[in-house]
User: Fold these one by one.
Assistant:
Number 1:
Amino acid sequence: MSWTPADPMVSLKNVHKSFGDLKVLNGVSLDVMKGDVICIIGPSGSGKSTLIRCVNALNDIQQGSILVEGQEVNDPKLDKLELRKKVGMVFQQYNLFPHKTALQNVMMAPIRVLKQDKAQAEETARGLIKKVRLEGKENAYPGELSGGQQQRVAIARSLAMRPDVILFDEVTAALDPETVGEVLQTIKDLAEDGMTCILVTHEMAFAREVADHIYFTDRGVIVEHGPPETFFQNAQDPRTKEFLSQIL
Amino acid sequence: MEFVFEWFRTLYQETGINLPFLYDEYDRNRMIDGFFTTIWLSLVCLFFSVIIGIIGAWLQGSAFKWTRRIVNGYIQLFRNTPPLVQLYFFYFAIGTLLPRVENDWGGQSPILGSFAWAAISLSFFAGAFNVEIFRSGIEAVPKSTVEAAEALGFSKLQIYRDITLPLAFRVVLPALNNNLVNLVKTTTLAYAIAVPEMLYEANQIWSDNVNVTEMMFFLLLAYFVLVGVLVGGMNRWERAMKIPGYGG
Amino acid sequence: MTYKTDLPVMLPMKRREAEPFLSLKMWYILPIALLAILGPNLVVAQSTPESQSPIAVLLNWAPLLLKGFIFNLVISVSAMALGTFVGAILGLGQISLFAPTRHSSWFVTQFFRNAPWLVLLFFAMFLLPFEINLFGFKIPFPDWFKAILGLSLPVMANVSEIVRGAVRSLPSGQWEAAESLAYTRLQTLWLIILPQCVKRMLPPWMNLYSILTMATVLASIVGVNEVMTLTGQALASEGGRPDLLAPFYGFVLLLFFIYCYPIAKFTVWLETKYAVIS
């Protein structure tokens, strides 16, 4: 049974994950189609970040199945490198390599991992830096950039691997309020280009604007999900209602 | 040059300030040999102590309890006993156990000379400090930065070579340089087993010329300049290696 | 020492407890060391029954060697006291507002810090007179006294740096706050700054003491009757038996280890304790 673009690009079925005695994911299932933008929201500690970290095998799971383009992630024989070429990730703390310039940060993985030609990788990298609106900052080191700028470099770095899906793990949570907008704009551009995105976020207005589908998680399960309009206006579950009333 | 040498000879005749290593060719060559022996011994010890440091730091991460214990035992033993006694132990206690070889004059000589034993002993001494330095440097690289590289598909070896080591190296450089400066100062201990380094040669000269005072002041000055140049060079190197945008 | 990094993205370097070695328990060291000292003894004891076994010889000499070792400790404590006293003054000189004092203190500190300990010891040995005339009294300068002076020179320079480093590591807000309360500079230093510095200075100061203790054996090179000299004399009077070398030098290593290892452990403990507070 091979994967076709008509199947879900990422498919989670009954995923269970615990750290020691602490159950973090308690049977989570969701499907993401190609070109979809989905947002996962929920109170802190509800397992949102763990959920997306499992998708690119930064955390392993105890039970259930995660398929990325038909490839099973919960498999000891998994080729992690193949998986990570398909799945990009952007972190809350940017995690840029501090000893490399913005351009080098973006070029490094294509050269080392994809074995791209250096000149070609540099050309692509310059294009991506332009795309995230950081022209002129190519030779700046991460320490010389603002949080928002660093996060955009991190997005460019992830894009340079030409992933099929990108995971965003609370990418604006560590930013100054005035730089949040520029990062969200970059993500919005990506979404409009048809990139498949899975976001964990606290930015409700943004989620409402860009998401095709919203999932609300609490205590390791998906409580409720739906398209933004119905989700925000017609939440059914009391837990969702309570969360939304606090945050909106 | 001759003019300068003659000036010092006159200085001796006129004032009694006797600096024979400046006007007497034989003594001059002794002093120059001593200087280069000090440098050479320092370089050899530097090389091997760094190797010991890297291997030791690697072994400290071993899964075997006894491997870690032995490495820790080595570190504690060499850090908490006098390097001079270590040197005697190596040179006399171990050196006499080794087989002797016939030398060029038909006599018997030890398989390892005093220079070799000084190099071995001081390398183990400085190496014990380097293990700690390297290990703490590797631990200083945040897990999240390594994770970012993992998410980009870097292999374990690539992460180690491109991310962990370059960052760790920058962190440990000041401590490593400090250890190197101490090493250069510690090479004077080799005097005790008649390695012809600077102190030993100076001693030879003051024994022949009865000019202890002049030689003592010269030695102090020579080490002051040697170590001063070394420290200055290291500081420049540390500044050059500093990652832009971090620290003051 | 705890190495600090100024990269905010990097974690500060921590010295990890040497857990596996300590879990070996202190008393484990004794049997291991005894085995090392006795090891060669077992072989030799069988081959030369007519001569005394190395361990018996060592036991004969042990009381004398221990006395020598105690002399090493006396030298270390005296040099530490002297070096700390002069070094503290020199260190305060380094933070003086009067530029000539500051610069000359800095130069003296650097000069004696860059010099190898052994060279400074030679310096004191050969250049100090064997006695001085003070108001008609002849005060003798024995070798051991010169050794104390010689070893206190590098201690002085290192203490000076420790003081300077500790004072400079305090946030400038402390000085400003004291100034705004109209304290004089001396009052600020004595009442506000130094009390806070003591905690920061203690670990490196103890580390320095440990290094000094291990450096006291250098006095053997210039002929002071401390443990290393006595060991050499003991070995010579036993006729230079090669099977005695390892046990005797091993014994000296053991003496220093038993003294210095707990100091090192305590220093690490202090570091972690104060690191939590600040």
Number 2:
Amino acid sequence: MKLELNHLQCSYDEKIIIDDFTATIETGEILCLLGPNGIGKTTLFKTILRFLPIKKGSITINGQDIYAYSKKDYAKLIGYVPQSHTPPFAYTVMDVVVMGRTVHMDAFGSPGKKDYAFVAELLERLEIEDLKNRSYTELSGGERQMVLIARALAQEPVFLMMDEPTSNLDFGNQVKVIKNIKDLSKQGLGVIMTTHSPDHVFQCDAKVVLMMHDKRYLVGHVSEILSETSLTDTYGVHIAILKDYYHEQSFSFCQPIFETKR
Amino acid sequence: MKETAVQKKVQIFQFDWTAQKNRIIGMALILSIFLVAGISISLGEYNIPLDQMRSLVISQITQQPLDAADQKAATVLFLIRIPRIMLALLVGAALSASGAAYQGVFKNPMVSPDILGVAGGAGVGAAIALLLGFPTIGVHILSFLFGIGAVTLVLLLSKLVGKSQGTLLIMVLSGVVISSIFSALTSLIKYLADADDKLPEITFWLMGSFARSGSYQNILIMGFVLIIGGIPLLLYRWQMNVLTFGDEEAQSLGIDVKKTRLIIIGCASLLTASSVCLCGAIGWVGLIMPHITRMLVGPNYKVLLPITLLSGGLFMLIVDNVARLVVPGELPIGILTALIGAPLFIYMLFKGRSNWS
């Protein structure tokens, strides 16, 4: 399946934030949205999720306009992993993840044995089954992120939208989440994520949209798009890209260059 | 990690235990309701011993004539006490369920029909209808419209002040403001009311009491309202869970947020408004009963909502017994619920503060 953004214009509070934005993502791919604060990553994200209306242009899935899908059908196509937050009530992890099954229930339905079994198996697959009976409000940031990923996966979506999935996580958890995202895309899921870290884009070895000032967008594979010039231009600080080898595997990563006086 | 068969069994047992625990709590509540209702029937200023009650019930069924003493007992039993007990149960269930629903739909554990101004608004609507001499159905409709109006105002105000990110506190404060406007309107209506005729009627009714409202007609009204307001809430109770995560997440999980929220607010406001029409403003029940129930069975509305109907009814019945038994004559029940509810709420604020930001 293919998600296409064609000459999209998005606005927030009547102000045009994104203009003439074109990109595509297929199932099995990862698309990273990279760019400085306030460039419109969230606006774009929310437009794809149908939280904000499309101003101009179109978004299609499988060639069909996203607004042609019913609310329920759309939730079966796109799963959303928000940044973790605290809900007002102390639901158990099981309850939270089972909420992802809502799209597969009847209008007045509540989860049945099958849904609980599905979720139990899903938690096992994500190796977080020991969290099952814990209270969601008592979890650490990394654990919450995994639970929210599990909830979105319980929807059995085709695409997964992740809003800064690595923010507020310690280094180990960041690596774990990135590994999970790569595994999910290998299993055939299309993943769209926003991130503040170019290194994560290298680590995902993914397609990237570099969002620059003056509504310029560079779209392509990370190796083509992220360069010393483009990153320095985007962030306004000097960033070099280094390449190194470890056990015959090559790795690229970013290094800010601090000008030192001689 | 491979689990052994024993570990698997232990897990299954644990999982069943929570479901079993909730079932036991539900059964215990139903039993308690019957038990307390049975005791309440025989207690009162006019005591009706059990054997007399039995003979009264038999003679009522067989339509046998009664002597003078029995006649009086029969009147107390069938026309005053039983309807009053039934109404207390229904109103308690309605207020508690509407409180739980508001808390879910506004993702705010600190709101209730009183705090959102619904009770105040419904009171003003009903008072205006009484002042204008509307028929019963008109009183209920006007009260419902004012209740819905009040909650809409609170929502608008907290949206304007909080700029889309309405926090718990802003919503509560908006409720305080709107409630105070409605309480001023109530005073105005009282001021305008005819001091001989309408004023006492409105004043007594506003204090909140089951003393004058327990009639079979009112039970029919409240029962009907509980069915048309309560059943949609029960049907949407799983969706309420999802709504507590916020509009965007609920939408991404496949919920029609606007429609669902409208239905839930409408039903909850109907339950509150009709309770206020029949028994006046009985505060605090809609705030504390959902909380106490949540402590017992957890926050999942699938279990919470049906259990809170039962616990709310039981609580109201017990408090009404205290209202009519402790003091000779009668204590307005609104005074008691406030005296019990406020300290309980403070206790819960302390207990739950880690979860509330």
